[in-house]
Amino acid sequence: MTDNVPEATTTTVTAAADNAEIVQKFLFAMAEEDFDTVESLAAPDLLWQNVGLPSLRGRARIMNLLRRGQGRMGFAVKFHRIAQEGSTVLTERTDALIFGPVRLQFWVCGTFEVHNGQIELWRDYFDFFDIMVKAPLRAALAALIPSKRVSF
C-alpha cells in the first residue's frame, strides 16, 4: 500500500522530522558550547523569546550574548518529548543552567519555527517560581549535601 502514498506526503514527513533534529542539534550544540554550530542553525533574524522576559532579535546579537557566557556558565538539556508539524517543533524538556558547583534545573516547554534548515523563532515557556525559588533552593541544598545533587 505504500506505493499509493504521494511523494509530497513523504517529503513533508521527512522535512518535519528534519526540523525536530535541527532543534535537538541546536540545543545540544549550546550545551557543548559549539557556538559555530548554534550560529549555523540560527536564522539571521532569529527571534528568541523567554515568555515574561524581553525578547531578543537577531542572530548576531543572540550569538554575542551566548558567547559572553562561554566558560562562565554551563547549559544542559534533556528532552522528554518532541513533536513537530511542518515548520513548528514543540519541545518538553528539562534545562539546567550551571554556575560552577551550582546547578539550576527547571522544566521548559519550547516552540521553534524552522525554515530552510534554520531556526527563526525560539520561544520558551517556564514557571518563574520554579526558576527563581525552587531551583535555587534545590541547588543550595545540593551544595550543602552532595548526595542531593540533581541530575537528568
UniProtKB/TrEMBL annotation:
Gene3D superfamilies: 3.10.450.50
GO molecular function: hydrolase activity
Domain Limonene-1,2-epoxide hydrolase: from-to ranges: 18-133
UniProt-listed InterPro entries: LEH, NTF2-like_dom_sf
A UniProt-annotated Pfam family: LEH
UniProt keyword terms in alphabetical order: Hydrolase
Keyword Cell inner membrane: no
Name of protein: Limonene-1,2-epoxide hydrolase
